[in-house]
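Changelog entry: the Membrane protein record was regenerated in this release. Current contents:
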Amino acid sequence: MFEDNDQNHEEHPPKKRGTLFSGLRTSFLTGLVVIAPIGLTVWLFWTLVGWVDNFVLPFIPDGYQPETLLKDIFGEDTAINIRGVGVVVFLLFTVFVGWIMKGVIGRSILNYAEGLVEQLPVVRSVYNGLKQLAETVFAQSETSFEKACLVEYPRRGIWAVAFVSTTTKGEVDAKIPREEPLLSVFLPTTPNPTSGFLLFVPREDVIMLDMKVEDAAKLVISAGLVYPNGKDGKSGQKVAKSLEELAAQITHKPSGE
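Regenerated C-alpha cells:
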C-alpha cells in the first residue's frame, strides 16, 4: 500500500510537466481559433482597401500623397526589420489571447464583439465562414473523434462511414429506452465532412474500424476513391482501378481500353 503511494509520488512530476505543456498547447490552439477568423477578416478588407488605394492614389498629386503628408508632419521614419522577432511575438500573443479567452472575462468580450459583428451584413458572412473554417482546422485533440466506424444508414443493409464522438451521456442517454450502451456518432456528408448528422446508436450496431480517423476522413472526402493502405498491399490497386473506372465513365470508354 505504501509502495503504491511512493510510486504515485514519483510519477507526479512528469505529469506536471505534461500538464504544463498541454496547457500551453491548449491555449495556443484556442488563441488560433479566436485570432484566425478575426485576422483573416481584417486582412481581406485591408487587402480590398489596398486595391482601391493602388487604383486611386496615382491620380493624386505627389505633394498631397498620404506618405508625403505624414513625413512632413512626423519627419523621416526609420524601419527596423529583424526576422524571427515577429514569429516570437505572434506565438506569445496567441498563447496570451487563448489564455484570456478561456476565462469568463475573455468569453464575455468575445461574445460582445461577435454580437457587434452580427450587425454587419457583409462582415458577418465573412467572419462566420472563417470562424467555422478555423474551428475545423485547429480542432483540439481533447474534442476530436475517438474512432472511425461503420453504421447502417439510411436503412438496414446500407453502411456508411461515421466517427465516434463519445459515449452518450446525460439526459439523452437517460431518455432513450434502451438497456444497451449508446454511442454518439457523427455521420458526415460527402464531399464536405463539416456537415452531417448526429446519431445515437447502440454499441452493438456499430462496427469499429482499424483505420485512423484521418484516413476515414480522406475516404469520405474523396467519395470512396482514396482508401488507406491495407495490410494486404492491394489498396493501391483498388484505388487505381477505381480511378480508371471513373476516367472511363467520364470519357465514355470501356475501362480496359
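The longest strand covers residues 159-167.
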